[in-house]
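@here heads up, posting the sequence + SMILES for the flavin mononucleotide run so it's all in one place. Ping me if the SMILES looks off, I pulled it from an old spreadsheet.
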Amino acid sequence: MWYESQKPIIALAPMADMTDSPFCCVCREVAGDDFVIFREMVSSEAIVRENQKTLKMCEFDEVERPIVIQLFGASPEIIAKTAKIVVEKFSPDGIDINMGCPVPKITGKNLAGAALMKDHEKAVEIVKKIKAENLNVPVSVKTRLGWSKPEEILEFAPKLEEAGADLITIHGRTKTQGYSGQADWGMIARAKQVISIPVLANGDVKSPEDARVCLAQTGADGVMIGRGALGNPWILNDILIAKDTKVRNINEIIGVVLRHANLHLERYGEKSMVTFRKHLACYFSNAVNKPRVTGLKEFKKELMKISSLDELAMVLRKLKKF
Ligand SMILES: Cc1cc2nc3c(=O)[nH]c(=O)nc-3n(C[C@H](O)[C@H](O)[C@H](O)COP(=O)(O)O)c2cc1C
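bot reply: prediction finished. Complex structure tokens:
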């Protein structure tokens, strides 16, 4: 099992529209094999309806392993059915259930994501039903501290453990907080003490130093990194070797950007370069990478206008000249 082989566990967080196959392949190429990838969430309802776009989102390259596919939904029966379909069709190394997404589209009508923190019975039922399928892969849950009060996790996490969850990732914020304030690593430490399954601490880990402090403060079995890895896939290895943060060489960043752009294009087609702009923004804004060059503001504006690989290469060539 992927979570047994290494301590601390390093995980790439699931991020909708970001942790797709091209980005995950780049993370592997840049940062090696010693971390687990949680792919962006997919709708369980869409999978049972055999929605082709959603099924395609579950595809991965073998180099991405170990890889966990995250499902969201509110019906225990449908999620369990989906987990079975996904395992049989794609053979991922784990199934994760989203119990933390605060977006109204997810929590609203369907009462999925973070809404499951308000319905412990249903959350428990989801875990039990998936485990009853005997899929032979770990079943994990990613959640927050609570809906509105951080202490809610102290009641919720033991219930998930009792239901059979193999691992829990805790984002140190409540649903009400959204992304505001600081992740409360102290409360993750308290949650870790009330359960015995592995815990991944998540929230605001943006450097190897943050990871060291987070692991020491929480006593967690590992850390999961989200926004800190966008535009900075190197972090997933830097943490392991406890390498200090340093500004990257601009040519190294450009090489990785072009490689990522090529993989994106291969997967989504020539018109997709417009949707690659979100990654470009990260590569040149992430505080760690931010190239110390003059004219960066103008250069970033030009990057946000590219719509083909040629245009991207042309703009990047200008940066090389700075
Ligand atoms: C763009 C974006 C998309 C996200 N999508 C998901 C998702 O699909 N599933 C999930 O459980 N969390 C999702 N999250 C939350 C992250 O996995 C993570 O819990 C959160 O960003 C806090 O960690 P960080 O401070 O390391 O970014 C998303 C976050 C961002 C910024």
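MO: The first strand starts at residue 9 and ends at 12.
MO: One more: Strands lie at 9-12, 36-38, 42-43, 67-72, 94-99, 139-146, 167-174, 199-202, 222-225.
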